[in-house]
Write a structure and sequence with these properties.
By secondary structure, the protein is of the alpha+beta class. It contains nine helices and 22 strands. Helix 1 packs parallel to helix 6.
């Protein structure tokens, strides 16, 4: 918006970005959005780590190796990065584009309306008004609450524990996923470049009794990954470079994330199950769609509502696809095991049956015919 000549104020609470377990992997469909937004090259040239391959393991056996460049419509790889490095680069790029950036500033109140206003605090208080306020303040968004937008959520399904590792014995051109279907667990490891990896362990809420948070549980985290099937050799020389933290993975979303001069993007609008790595891509889709409507329509209230309607469509499509995959890969019990015994061999023979949330995201087929095709209900076998 600043590049288009609009006056833009970015209010950033943190003076220095710190490491957290979040947002290191951008799917190819998200890279396509980054390209449309004009930020892909900056990320690749500074903090980005291009990843072409995606391996899926059951135990230590590779059951699928996907060349993402060769198998998605945009012929694009995934793009990984250390989240604080990405934040720093994009904030600098915003300033270069002409936006005013205020660091170490907190929004303490927000009043919706035709001309919404905010109270800012950075040692002194100040009230500012804007034509439009965009809330990008995450899954526990205060902007969402101030706007009076109701949060909906799925029942809790999976818990995600993550840690920043160095020195893992793994290829850095590949995203690695290990499944233990019987346990309802998985390991997902993103290479960030420079010998760094973000390692995630997913498990059911009623899973491991030991808490997987805090440095003292780093060895428990590795043990849980190994129990899931990840080879111990991967971690033999690994070291902990960042915090170990765990959080719940259920979807949270707002229906029609727009009201009275306030619009939500990213996790503030909809938090997609992090186990499927679509959050960053979804955020960039939000940014691109909102930008396009604002630039196309002089009435920004109408533009914001047009964005919200489109957001509802593509987020619902993504949530539907991810829900099917979660049921297939993580559900436990005799019925789930029988379903996997029937469906997984079919998907190995015909991988195109699986909705491509990696390459297509919410544009993957997601109607009832697609669900039946995924679960083999259209197949007499």
């Amino acid at each position: 918006m600043a590049r288009a000549g609009c006056r833009v104020l970015v209010v950033e609470r943190e003076r220095k970005f710190r490491d957290r377990n979040r947002g290191e992997g951008m799917q190819p469909w998200g890279v396509a959005e980054a390209r449309e937004l004009g930020i892909e090259r900056r990320l690749v040239d500074t903090c980005g780590h291009v990843v072409r391959w995606r391996n899926i393991y059951v135990g230590d056996a590779v059951v699928s190796r996907r060349d993402m460049v060769a198998t998605n419509p945009g012929a694009l790889p995934a793009l990984d990065f250390h989240h604080p490095d990405m934040q720093t680069e994009l904030l600098a790029l915003a300033e270069e584009a002409g936006a005013v950036v205020r660091r170490g500033t907190t929004v303490t109140s927000l009043t919706p309306g035709r001309l919404p206003s905010l109270e800012l605090e950075d040692g002194h208080r100040e009230r500012v008004s804007a034509r439009l306020v965009v809330g990008a303040d995450g899954r526990t968004s205060r902007v969402r609450d101030w706007a009076g937008l109701q949060t909906r959520r799925d029942s809790e399904c999976l818990v995600i524990a993550g840690i920043l590792h160095g020195g893992l014995h793994l290829a850095e051109d590949t995203i690695h996923t290990v499944y233990s279907h019987a346990r309802g667990q998985a390991v997902l490891i993103f290479p960030l470049g420079g010998g760094r990896f973000r390692s995630y362990f997913f498990y059911r809420r009623q899973g491991p009794a030991r808490p997987l948070a805090g440095a003292r549980h780093a060895s428990d985290f590795v043990s849980a990954c190994v129990e899931t099937g990840a080879p111990a050799a991967w971690f033999a020389r690994g070291e902990m470079l960042g915090p170990l933290a765990a959080f719940e993975g259920a979807d949270r979303w707002v229906a029609h994330p727009c009201r009275e001069g306030i619009v939500l993007i990213g996790d503030a609008a909809a938090t997609s199950d992090p186990c499927f790595g679509t959050g960053l891509s979804l955020t960039l889709r939000d940014v691109r769609v909102l930008r396009d409507h604002l630039l196309a329509m002089p009435d920004w209230a109408a533009a914001a509502h047009a964005y919200a309607r489109e957001h509802d469509r593509y987020y619902s499509a993504l949530r539907r696809v991810v829900g099917w995959l979660r049921d297939l890969y993580y559900e436990r019990g005799p019925e789930a095991e029988a379903q996997r015994a029937r469906v997984l061999p079919l998907l190995e023979r015909e991988p195109e049956r699986r909705p491509d949330h990696v390459g297509l995201g919410p544009e993957a087929p997601n109607d009832e015919a697609a669900r039946r095709r995924l679960f083999g209900e259209d197949c007499p076998c």
